[in-house]
């Protein structure tokens, strides 16, 4: 199925004919004058040799000279209309001489019948009929002159009139033939003009089509290339037509595949479809949808191929980008769902931990506790604090953790953590710091950013392990982000601007694509003892800080974690902390919470602080209690409750007493817990789980 099969299938019966001389009117007239001159010279010699025919010989010789002059004039570009009229005048003179002058055996008159053919050959039918009519009138006048005896000819008047009839008869035949020929010529010219216009329109369509189109003949010669193919190939149509085989213009691999696809097209029925990658003139590898169709003549023999190439490179790239975007959206939706679940679980756990930690603190304040009981309480307290820390990580992942923003110099923050980072990694690992000289001012929560850096460094240390020496590099730079789409960020959606970039690099074991895809999922871990919340918490923290994380990792080569924080160009705000006042040892408090355990613990802790406490289990009950008795100094109000939540309850209480001091409490951070509170804001906020010391500080503020 190689070149022999290709040539066998592409054998053509089409032959290209050269243009005939008769397609050029000027050449035809030149040929007529040359032959006429030769014939006149020949007849002139014959008439001259025979005695008595000298006048006719001289006439024919003179006309031969005129024919030669006209031939020369035609070659110099003379007006053909003038040449045609001269030719007709010469014909009139010649045929008149054949009638009026003596000729050998009086045979000259026989040639007169050919005058109509000469007239209709030289002129169009509308002009030739006048030349014939004029000559017929001349012959008729001659017949009358002969009949009346004014002139003597070797012919009788009847013979002359018969000659007129013959001329008219042949003129009618010539007129009919020439008129039909001119009609066909006019129709053909009209069709040719239409075809030319259609070809021009088609050429515009082909040249401006985004589809590459080419055509080859039976010998694999290029017959046509449109502009799209010329642009892609870098070869002009003229250059392509000069080669004997179009495959010589292609690479060896592409030439071989082209021959195979040509043969497949010839062997099949209809169009042949396939895909082809082609290295184009701009050095870009493009992918094309190819279509090849064989061309046949009226006998069904193959005369060539026409091909179409549709560039689908951008389409394929768009499909890849679309698939990537869909995966990112699905991943974001999964993380969002997990975040909602994690936040809800952490909130409920914080309610339970409030009761546990509060009960432990109250128990510790009781006297005469045995050492064993004290040890048990310490164990419970430690476990509850660990659980509270776990809840904080879950809330950080969900974006609802406690967030206390302040302006921080990231370089200073890293310097403060050096000693902690040094003791957090294995002794076989070298920790290197590279800080920029520019301002690294960011807006963020100090504790949460410390958690981000500590988690990243610990993860890098665990990736290196304890067996081989390793290195962790921490660098801080200030960079301009001009095109976020060129990066693959996790966390918040970054916009163009200036960022402080924290980069943690290690030469550990690295991660594959599957691990990277799931590394931010809660409870996903590759460590035996891990909880799988470290990276999840980092993602939540970065969302809260409007920052992003870029992960670059190769198995066996290490990992680079790049954190982008929005750069703050303002002046650092070091505001003074508010001064606390002495504790109020008396007062009346309304505690509102739907969790009975939390309600009991809060009541006991506040009573321990010397306050009188009343309780309510939901917002409706609290509003009813305060409406009945407004002798409360302040209210401790839970945010999330059935029937009427804390935000709605706060509005109702403020309608009753706009100056009422209200402290709200939730397992979420204040920003998320009070997102729907609009203009009704509490005086203070207490994050669960809270301790008796935290309650003491709140009591001090209520003075």
What characteristics describe this protein?
52% helix; EC 2.7.13.3; disordered N terminus; 703 residues; Heat Shock Protein 90; Beta-Lactamase; six-stranded mixed β-sheet
Structural notes for this entry:
The chain has 703 residues and is α/β, with parallel strands linked by helices. 52% of the residues lie in helices and 17% in strands. The strands form 4 sheets. Strands 7-9-11-13-12-10 form a 6-stranded mixed β-sheet. A 5-stranded antiparallel β-sheet has the order 2-1-5-4-3. Strands 15-14-16-17-18 form a 5-stranded parallel β-sheet, sandwiched between helices. The protein is rod-shaped, with a radius of gyration of 54 Å. It holds the Pfam family Response_reg. It comes from Mariprofundus micogutta.
Blueprint of the fold:
Layout: H1 3-9, H2 25-49, H3 54-75, H4 80-100, H5 115-122, H6 125-147, H7 157-207, E1 212-217, E2 222-225, H8 227-233, H9 237-242, H10 252-267, E3 272-279, E4 285-296, E5 302-311, H11 313-365, H12 371-398, E6 405-409, H13 410-416, H14 418-424, E7 429-435, E8 441-445, H15 446-464, E9 470-481, E10 489-491, E11 497-506, H16 513-518, H17 534-544, E12 548-554, E13 558-566, E14 588-592, H18 596-608, E15 612-616, H19 619-628, E16 634-638, H20 646-656, E17 661-666, H21 670-673, E18 684-687, H22 692-701
Parallel strand pairs: 7-9, 14-15, 14-16, 16-17, 17-18
Antiparallel strand pairs: 1-2, 1-5, 3-4, 4-5, 6-8, 9-11, 10-12, 11-13, 12-13
Helix pairs in contact: 1-10, 2-3, 3-4, 4-5, 5-6, 5-7, 6-7, 11-12, 11-18, 12-17, 15-17, 19-20
InterPro entries: CheY-like_superfamily, HATPase_C_sf, HATPase_dom, His_kinase_dom, HisK_dim/P_dom, HisK_dim/P_sf, MASE6, PAS
Domain Histidine kinase: 344-569
Organism: Mariprofundus micogutta
